């Protein structure tokens, strides 16, 4: 759940410190681990999901 929440949040330009707070992380160090997963492929896939959900 954490990785899904952080990927969605980070993909929608929520700041890393804010994502860390949302997930209950005491620092951004753990959140940075999730942020490394984001690349253009994931962003493209998330945009496709968002488009499907808004239909």
TrEMBL record:
Coiled coil: none annotated. Keywords: DNA recombination. GO terms for biological process: DNA integration; DNA recombination. It comes from the Bacteria. SUPFAM superfamilies: DNA breaking-rejoining enzymes. GO terms for molecular function: DNA binding. This is Tyr recombinase domain-containing protein. It comes from Bacteroides fluxus YIT 12057. The lineage of its organism: Bacteria, Pseudomonadati, Bacteroidota, Bacteroidia, Bacteroidales.
């Amino acid at each position: 759940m954490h990785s899904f929440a952080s990927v969605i949040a980070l993909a929608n330009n929520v700041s890393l410190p804010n994502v860390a707070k949302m997930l209950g992380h005491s620092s951004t160090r753990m959140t940075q681990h999730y942020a490394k997963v984001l690349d253009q492929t994931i962003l493209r896939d998330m945009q496709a999901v968002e488009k499907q959900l808004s239909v």
